[in-house]
Amino acid sequence: MIRDEETLNILLDSISRFVREVLVPNEQLVAETDEIPPAIVAQMRELGLFGLSIPEQYGGLQLTMEEEVRVAFEIAHTSPAFRSLIGTNNGIGSQGIVIDGTAEQKEYYLPKLAAGDIIGAFALTEPGSGSDAASLRTSAVRDGDFYILNGTKRYITNAPEASIFTVMARTDPVKRGAGAISAFIVEKDTPGLSLGKIDKKMGQRGAHTCDVVFENCRVPAANVIGGKEGVGFKTAMKVLDKGRLHIAAVCVGAAERMLDDALRYAMERQQFGQPIAEFQLIQAMLADSKAEIYAARSMVLDAARMRDNGNDVSTEASCCKLFASEMCGRVADRSVQIHGGAGYIAEYAAERFYRDVRLFRIYEGTSQIQQIVIARNMIKAAQK
Ligand code: COS
């Protein structure tokens, strides 16, 4: 749903200009230093990029899903690390509070997240629990007006930068599975919370992950999201439904960027006395990429509109994440191939993007988990 085309276009134009004029020229610097310059972060704040999906009453832009995915298409035309910094505040780091938080939790945390004054992170994955998220072992034991958290969370995006964490922990030591899991808002300075060292990753330099460790960490009972025990896994899944659509949009934008670069290279690079873009085998790679990007873009827009209309889009979000992330991987591979030897050299963006986009098929649910969600939902619907 687009509320006002003209207002959206103004936002999209300013983001697109910011991407072209500020972010793209700084991609290499961020890759080399593993840091986004603070001046750029400040500009991101001014543009409102930290509060895209947070309700207006809390200082955000309250974009509809369709508006948000269109913004994600634009912002993904540059290094995924830039998107990653704003990604958690708009997605998994804030949406638990937006969707299921109490009025007090929303009023206290959302304005800070929307302004980018604080960064939020989402702590679900553990050393022993990745795809099987419901098997997580971090425990939260009630002690008066507090819960005592113990456990380790792994690969937590933006943890080194985060001021608050949405933490999924087990509040019922006896009950197995999803029904014993509750979601907490945990502030970084809470005694007993510590961070591991920053992970060395394949790509996305400038975006950071690390372990978050809880050792007898005392969290106020008022920080249980929604004030209710036992529904934290559902909160996490609802957050991921939206997150998966957002990531699918990011895959589309990144693929568009890689294809632009490959096309430009193919039109400039001369071999056998002509630009390689004139060769039909190169054209096949360009055309397949174009068609697949178009398909993914159409899917993402359709699912976003469905969500805006109030439909449950668990199946569609997984379809989009599965198709768009796999598509993005194929486009990355073709982009390197079209660049030939140059595609293997770090000077060209193709090499960096090839590594950066590999993550899209893994985080917020692997392609295999998306397949499982889709098929399970199909079977459930057929049994009704
Ligand atoms: N929205 C709301 N509720 C949902 C839901 C959704 N999208 N998906 C599941 N639930 C509910 C189920 O309805 C069920 O509730 P009831 O017991 O009341 O029926 C509960 O949550 C448990 O669901 P389910 O039985 O499907 O859980 P499973 O343990 O079988 O696992 C998968 C579900 C595999 C889909 C889940 O663990 C998953 O998504 N794993 C991947 C995790 C992931 O994406 N990690 C990335 C790291 S975070 S960046």
Automatic annotation (TrEMBL):
Key words of the record: Branched-chain amino acid catabolism, FAD, Flavoprotein, Oxidoreductase
Looking at the record, the residues that make up the Acyl-CoA dehydrogenase/oxidase N-terminal domain are 7-117
Any one GO MF annotation of this record: acyl-CoA dehydrogenase activity
Native species of this protein?
Answer: Massilia eurypsychrophila
Where is the Acyl-CoA oxidase/dehydrogenase middle domain positioned along the sequence?
A: 121-217
Q: Which residues form the Acyl-CoA dehydrogenase/oxidase C-terminal domain?
A: 231-378
Task: Give the GO biological process terms.
Answer: branched-chain amino acid catabolic process
In its keyword annotation, does this UniProt entry include Ion transport? no
Q: What is the protein name given in its UniProt record?
A: Acyl-CoA dehydrogenase
List the PROSITE patterns.
ACYL_COA_DH_1, ACYL_COA_DH_2
So what family is this one in? Belongs to the acyl-CoA dehydrogenase family.
Q: Which Pfam families does this chain map to?
A: Acyl-CoA_dh_1, Acyl-CoA_dh_M, Acyl-CoA_dh_N
State the InterPro entries in the record. Answer: Acyl-CoA_DH_CS (IPR006089), Acyl-CoA_Oxase/DH_mid-dom (IPR006091), Acyl-CoA_Oxase/DH_mid-dom_sf (IPR046373), AcylCo_DH-like_C (IPR036250), AcylCo_DH/oxidase_C (IPR009075), AcylCoA_DH/ox_N (IPR013786), AcylCoA_DH/ox_N_sf (IPR037069), AcylCoA_DH/oxidase_NM_dom_sf (IPR009100)
The annotated pathway is: Amino-acid degradation; L-valine degradation
Provide the cofactor list for this protein. FAD
**Flavoprotein among keywords:** yes
